[in-house]
Design a protein that fits this description.
By secondary structure, this protein is of the alpha/beta class. The chain contains seven helices and 19 strands. The protein has two domains: 188 residues, Ribonuclease Z/Hydroxyacylglutathione hydrolase-like (Metallo-beta-lactamase, Chain A, 4-Layer Sandwich), CATH 3.60.15.10; 111 residues.
């Protein structure tokens, strides 16, 4: 197994590549894309493999390849199974963003799960991920350090609503900044459902909102925001990197804010969820594929007694 700009898993005659962010050095039998965040795929890499089957959900393709230029896409959805180039692939929702999936494959008698980014917590949007039983789990380590344990969702929701209400009482608009795909949709739903206000939403966020709605996620009402200072008090939802007028108060909504400076609202699993996933999966081997890889591997060995590896290359027997 190779963890390098994606994850390469070899077994028998099959080479399975998960989430490549550059063209794989080894020729893959099949490529699998877990979801539509840009740190999990490269269109250039995918286009460089015109004869290789590329497995993903319809919602993922709608976001990353709306013009349908990729060739050889094989669709799979939550609860479905496909066989591609002799590899059986089972898909399960990962609860991260619209269309995000975890995948179970079996190579040389080993049940291997690639979680992609996942979330086990109940939220206003999407259903939580289910833990998939496996021998080997290749797991998201974005927040794989013990310092990243998030408050309960209800507490975060309450704090955000109180923060926005206080600004509205002052007659002030407030920018809520979250990741364009994921947190921004949760913020859209929270503002409408909890406050009965129609939030203003930046177009880059609204375009993703429409994909969520197409695939059955109701976010409530929202209105377009064109970037000028709003005339009325209330929430304005933008993506994290959006530039804004310095006169507008703003709030960052990201897991990195657990250390302060915003609200740690994330579509990722925190450290406690990651540990719970590995424990409940029954896996004997865990391999973090991103984030705090070394620290998480050591924590999993200490807390669960499993084999855990953070090396670039891993051989599993």
């Amino acid at each position: 197994m190779l963890v390098d700009h994606g994850v390469v898993v070899q077994g028998g005659r099959a080479t399975v590549v998960f989430d490549p962010t550059r063209t794989p050095a080894l020729k893959p039998s099949v490529v699998i894309v877990s979801h539509a965040h840009s740190d999990h795929y490269s269109l250039r890499a995918l286009r460089s493999l015109p004869n290789t089957p590329i497995v993903m959900s319809r919602a993922t393709r709608e976001i990353i390849d709306p013009s349908l230029r990729l060739r050889n896409v094989v669709y799979i959805e939550d609860g479905e199974e496909v066989e591609v180039e002799g590899v059986r692939i089972d898909a399960f929702s990962s609860g991260h963003i619209v269309g995000s999936l975890q995948f179970l494959i079996e190579l040389e008698g080993k049940r291997i799960v690639f979680t992609g980014d996942f979330n086990l917590e109940k939220r206003l949007v999407l259903k939580p991920a289910s833990v998939v039983r496996a021998d080997v789990v290749i797991i998201d380590g974005t927040y794989g350090s013990p310092e990243y344990v998030f408050p309960p969702r209800t507490e975060l929701y309450r704090g955000l609503v109180e923060f926005v209400k206080s600004r509205m009482e002052e007659g002030t608009p407030v920018l809520l900044k979250g990741r364009r795909v994921g947190v921004a949709q949760e913020l859209t739903a929270l503002m409408y459902m909890s406050m009965d206000v129609v939030p203003l939403v930046e177009e880059s966020v609204a375009s993703v909102n429409r994909v969520y709605e197409k695939y059955g996620e109701w976010l409530g009402k929202y209105a377009p925001w064109v970037g000028s200072i709003p005339e009325r008090a209330g929430p304005v939802i933008t993506h994290l990197a959006s530039r804004h007028d310095a006169r507008l108060p703003h709030c960052l909504c990201t897991g990195w804010a657990v250390k302060g400076g915003g609200f740690p609202l994330s579509s990722h699993a925190d450290f406690s969820q990651i540990v719970r996933y590995v424990r409940d999966s029954g896996a004997e081997v865990a391999i973090p594929f991103c984030g705090y890889r070394s620290e998480l591997a050591e924590s999993l060995k200490r807390l669960l007694g499993v084999e855990a590896y953070a090396e670039r290359e891993v051989t599993i027997t």
